[in-house]
# Entry
Amino acid sequence: MGPLEVARDGVRVPIGAGRQRSILAALLIDAGRIVSVDALARRLWGEDPPRGARNAVQNYVLRLRRTLGPDVVVTDRRGYMIKVPPDAVDARRFDALVRQGAAASSAGDHERAAELLGEALALWRGEPLADLPAEQFQDVVPALSERHLAAQERWIDAVMQCGRPADVLPELRRLTGRHPFRERFWAQLMLALYRCGRQGEALERYREVSRHLAEELGIDPGDELRTLHRRILASAPELAATRRPSPGGGGHLPAETTSFVGRERELAETRRLLRASRLVTLTGVGGVGKTRMALRAAGQARSHFPDGVWLADLAALTDSTLVARAVAEALGLRDQSVRSAMDALADHVRDRDLLLVLDNCEHLVDAVARLVQRLLCAAPGLRVLATSRERLGVPGEHVLLVSGLTLRPGGDGGACEAVRLLSDRAAACAAPLRDGGSAAELCRRLDGIPLAIELAAVRLTSLTVEEILERLEDRFRLLSDPRGPASDRHRRTLRGVMDLSYNLCTPCERMLWTRLSVFTGGFDLKAAEAVCAGDGIERADVLDLITGLIHKSVVVVDGGGRSARYRLLETIRQYGLDLLQRDGDATDYRIRHSDHFHALAAGAAADWCSPREVEWLDRLRTELPNFRAALGFCVDRPDRARTGADIAADLTRTRSWFFSGTLGEARHWLDSLSAGPGIRETTVTVTAMKTFIASIQGDQRAAETLMDECRQGDQDVRAPAMAYVEGVHALLARDDPACIERLARAREGLRAAGLTGDAHMATMFWAMAAAFLGDQSVAVAARETYVAEAVASGAGWARTWAQWLTGLTELLHGDPAGALTPLCDALLRQRAMDDRWGPAWGMETLAWTAGVLGHHHHAARLLGAAHRQRQVTGAALTGLRPFHLHHTRTENRVREHLEPQAYTEAWQSGASAGDVVALALGAADEIRLRTAADRDTSG
# Structure
C-alpha cells in the first residue's frame, strides 16, 4: 500500500533501521497470527540465515515492543504476533472495502460500488513496501500489486455502469501506459471512448495495442479485445450506456462538461463527513475546485438520498435578503402564500431525506448561515454540502479545506494530479505537453490551483510551458480567459478571483494581507506581529486578523509543529505584493522583514551549542525561504549590505547551512554581500567565514586564496578566530599535524572571549585532528574532552558528532568493531532530526570500518551510499585530505578482495538505494552480527 508507515492517533511513529522495519512488515502481513522466530529469520536472511540470527530477531522485536508497546507486539512461546484491529492495517481495510464494493456491484448499486472501491483505492500511497528490500517480500508484493490492479478494474467498471465513462478516461490512459500488456485496461479504455461518442479513437486504441503486442510479445490481442473490436465496428446496441433511473426521488445536478482529475482522497473524506454530520462546508481559495468537488461528491452520494440531491448556486445573488427565495427556486418550490420564504422552505424539507448543495456562499455568509441553521433544525433528514471561501460558523459544521491538486508524482510513478489536469486540458486545446519536468514546475508555481492550471493550458496554444514560466511574474495578466462570457469574466481570471476574495475582507484584513506578502514560504505569529503591526494595525489585533484571513481562505495554517505556522499561496502572495508595491509600502515592509530575520539569526548564534540547538536548527531551516528573501533584498541595497552579511555569517556560525545541505549557498551570499560597499569593518570576518566554508567543501584552491586574504587583513593573525580558521584549513587542506596545537589554542581563546558556540566547534575540529593525525593518547584525551563538553551542553546535534568522533577514534586507535555502535547511533539521531550533512560522513566512516573488519562487499555498498549522500552536501572528497586518504585506502583494500564487476555492482547498489541511511544501518547490523559470531567461533 506504499512505504511502511505507523501512526498512533494520527501522529507518525518512527521505526528504526531497515531490518527492524522488515520484521514489523512481516508481522503485519500475518497480523493476528503467531509468526515463529525461524520464519522471521528466513524473511530477513533467506534460507541460510547467519549464526546468531535468532538473537538478532529477538533484539529487533524487543525494540519494536518498546516503540509500539507490549499490548501491540505480543510474545508467545511459538513466536510473536501483532495484535491490532482488522481496520488498523491498510491492506486488510482495502480488502474489506473491495469485497463490499463487489457485493454492491453484484446487487446493482453501482454508485455505492464506485464509492467503496474509490475509498479502497485512496488507501494506496505507492508501490507496496517500497522502502523495504524486494527480495524479502517476493511472496507478498506481487499479490498486493495484483489486488490493486484488480480493484482498479472493478472501480472503472462501476463508474462506467453509473453512466460516467468520461470520468475514467484520464486514469485509463495512465494505466495503459503503465501496464501496456494488461488487455483488460485496453478493453475498458476502448469501451469508455466508445460510450463518449469517440468511436474512431476507440478503434485507434485497438490498432495501438495490437501493434504493441505484436512488436513486443509476438502475439495477437485476446478474445475479449477482438470481440469488443468487432462490436465497436458494428456499433452493437449492447455497448451503449444504459440510462438507469436515479435512485433518488428527484433533484438536479448539472452535467459535467470536462473530465474530473484526481481528488480521490478528498472525495472519500467528503462522503465520510456527509455520513457523519449534517453540514459539511468545503472551503479554500478561489479557483481551487470546491464547486467541482462538491458536485462530484454529491453525485456519488445520490443513492443515499431518496428525495434527491439539489443544487442552489448563489454566485450571481447579491441581495442577502433573497437567499431563501433563491434556494426555494432551486428546490422547485412554488409557494404563493403570505409566509416568508424561510418558513415555506422549512415546511418543504421537514419530512424529506435530501442533500442540498449550496454553492458559492462566501459573499452571503451570514444570510446562508441563518437559513442553514433554521433548515437543519426543521428537517432531521436534511444534509447540507456548502462551498465557500469562508466557513459558515453554524453549530455542528464540519469544515474540509480543499487544497490545490497534488504536486508530487503518484506512488505508482505516474504524473501528479496537477500535471495530469494540465495535460488533459492542453490536449483538449490541441496543445499536447512535451516536457513533463517543465510542466511540473509550472503547476508548482501555480500552487496546483485548477483554475490557474486550466487558464495556463489555454495559453499553451500560443506559448510553450517554458515561455509561460518566464512570464509568471505577470500571472494576473497572463492567466485570463478572454473568451469567457462577460458575466463570468471575474471568475475566469486569476485577478478576478483574487479581487473577489480581497473585497470580502475587512479593511484591516486587507492591510494585513498585503503586508504578509513580504514573507516567503511561511511565517509564525511572532514574525507577523514584528513585521506587520503598526500604522493602522495594533499588535494585539494581529492574531484575530490572521484568524479572519484563515476563515476567508486567504491564509493557510499548519498546526503540525510546536507552534502554528501560516502561509500565503504564491498566487495570493503575489496579489498582495502587487498591491503593496502599488501603494509604495513594499520597501518599508521588506526592511522590517530583513530586520526581523537579522535579529532571529543573531539570537540563534548567541544561543548556539545549548539544549535548544536542534530546535534552533529546525527553526532556521524552516525559515530558510525568508532568510533568502531577506538576503536577496540586502544584496540589492548597499545600505543593507551590512545587515545581510551579518545574517549570512550568523547562519554559518549556527551551522544552519550544513544542517540544511545548502553550504554552497552560504558562499554565494557571502561573496555577493562582500562585493558591495558599506561593510569594510566586517570584511575580514566575512573572508574568514568564506575560508572556513571553502575548506569544508574541499575547494582547496579557493581556500588557499581566501586564507591569504585573511592573513593580509587588518585582524591580528594570532586572534582566536584566525587561529581557528587556520587550524581547520591546515587539517582539511594540508593534513598538517601542527593543526592540533593551533586548534587547541583557538579553542581556549574563543572560550575566554565568551564565544561558546565557536569554541565548541573549535573543540570538535581539535578532537578530529587528534584522531586523524595524533597518537593514541592525544586522540583519546581529545575525544573524551569533546564528548564531555557535548554532553554537558545538552546540544542534540553536537552529541551526534560526539558519537561520530567516538566511532572514528575507536576505528583509528582502538577496536574497529567497537566503532559500529557509536557510528550507527549518530546516524540514527541525525536521520531523526533530518540532518542532511552529517550522514554522509557517518556512512563514509562506516565504510572504512567495514573494510578494516574484512566485510568488503558491505564496504563497497557503504562507499556507494556515502557517495550518494555526499552529492547532497556538495563537498569534494579529494579536497579533504584526511578523509580522502582513508577513503582511498578502503577503496583499494576492497578492490583487492572483490572482482571488478562485483565491486561495481555492490557500489552501485549502495549509490542507488532508496534509503541510504537504512542501508547503512542494516549493513552495520549484519557486520556486528557476523563479527560477534566469528569471535565466538575463534574463542
